[in-house]
Amino acid sequence: MKVIGTLVVSIAIGIVFSWIRASETDNLPLQDSTQTIHKKEVSVFQIHAQDRVAYTISASGTVRPKPYTRVFSLVSGTVVSMTPVGTTAIQGQPLYQLTDTGIESSYMHALRGFTQTQAITEERINQSRLGLEAARARLLLAEESYALAEQQAAQALASAQDSGEIAYATAHADLQQVLTSLSEGMLAEHIYRYRAIATTQTALLTQVSDQFTKTVDAYGSLPVISGETQLQYNLTQMHKTLLAAKTLVDTTSYLLQNAIPGDQLNFLTSAELAITQTMSMHDQARMNQDIAAVLSQLHGLDAVVIGNTLALAQARNQKNLASIDVDNAQTLLASAQKGADLERTGAQAQLDAASYAYSNLTLLAPFTGSILSHFVDVGDQVRAGSEILELGNMRTVEISIEVAASFLRDLQVGTPARMNGALIGEVSELSPSASVTSGKARVVVVSQSAQNALAVGSVARVELMVAREGIDLIAIPLKAVTMEETGKSVLVAVLGKAVKRSVVLGDVLGDVVMVTEGLAQGDMLILRDGVFVSEGDVIEMKE
Known about the structure:
Blueprint: H1 2-26, E1 40-46, E2 50-65, E3 68-72, E4 77-82, E5 88-89, E6 94-99, H2 101-182, H3 203-220, H4 231-257, H5 270-359, E7 362-364, E8 369-374, E9 381-382, E10 387-392, E11 397-404, E12 416-419, E13 423-430, E14 440-447, E15 459-473, E16 475-477, E17 482-484, E18 487-494, E19 497-502, E20 504-509, E21 512-517, E22 524-527, E23 539-541
Helix pairs in contact: 2-3, 2-4, 2-5, 3-4, 4-5
């Protein structure tokens, strides 16, 4: 079914095409069969739709070397020497030499001034650097002294704390022994051994019992061993407890001295009283010794803390003063450097101005090229802005041309070109848009193989090999188109006769023109190549 459908469509298209051709033929004027038909032999061009149409853009421009420059004098002076015309100047080689007494003298004076300024300011900076280094050395020494003071302070405090802990532990042990000797049973039971002793001072018995209870309670609140962190506080509490214990021991000793010897209950024998009184005196001595030791350690700790504080404060003050000296020395150095920079900048500015004029007495070749011409001679006086010579590299030339804006879409940097039909080059610069007034755009073509083949300033013909790309493009020779007031038309060969066909044209691309309407694939376009052909003429296509 698909094959049959395709066959029907093909037959229909053939019938329509035959009808169109017959319609064109019906419009031709009838020939008298009795007349002799004269056929004109013509060249034809079969229309083919294509995706790429190659063409050539032609234009003319002035030849210039690339690189090229006209050298001007930047200062005034007398011409001493010049590179001869025709000589090849290597890049960096002197092109000419001027002399001027004022410029040369100003340069030497500025150079001496700059050298002296550099020496003076450098010496000033060096002195400031030495001052900064000395200040930093003093700061380092002060920091070491402070670190040593911290170490010594830590050692002194540790030693005092060790002594304090020993004194505390000794006092704590003595307290335990004294209170235990005054206790009947366990200390926690708070029972005073002599609470019911026979004595002449019976009024003190209740008082001393209360003292015993309070002293045992105070002792119980004390830690067995004092750490470093609470040593000062613990020693103070120990001192208070020792004073209370001493009062208790003193009162007990007084009671014992006034005790009544006897053999009855609550009575002590004379021998027992003697032993008890001796033990009491021993306890008194031990309490006095512990009180003095603890108090000494408290005073020693205070002295160490105060001494450490003063020593560290003094060392810290020395370090702070040394740090201030370093800051001041840094400020002085920064000020010296800033002042030196300002002085050197001023001297450098004077030297730069003088050097600019002095260096411009001689101009070096900015690139390798040939001396094309001189505008002055040796011995001439020139002013700033005077034209001296022309320099160009003739191995590479460039030509600037103008092309229609419609060509820009087909051009790009690197598009191949010919100069005067032989020299090969390419597009090196391309204007992005055309001039509003002329409708043309500037294109620069360069050739790196000129080898002096073109003369500077001459006019050369440039041909750009380009192509228009698209889909189903139709291009015909421009000479095949007839331009009339009623429109544009061409002649096509239809059944041996010339038939006029109206066309709509697009861009003109060199010697061809784009056709957007009026021609189709397979049409036979009649070319006007010397044979005059009119609409309706009987024609014969050349082999």
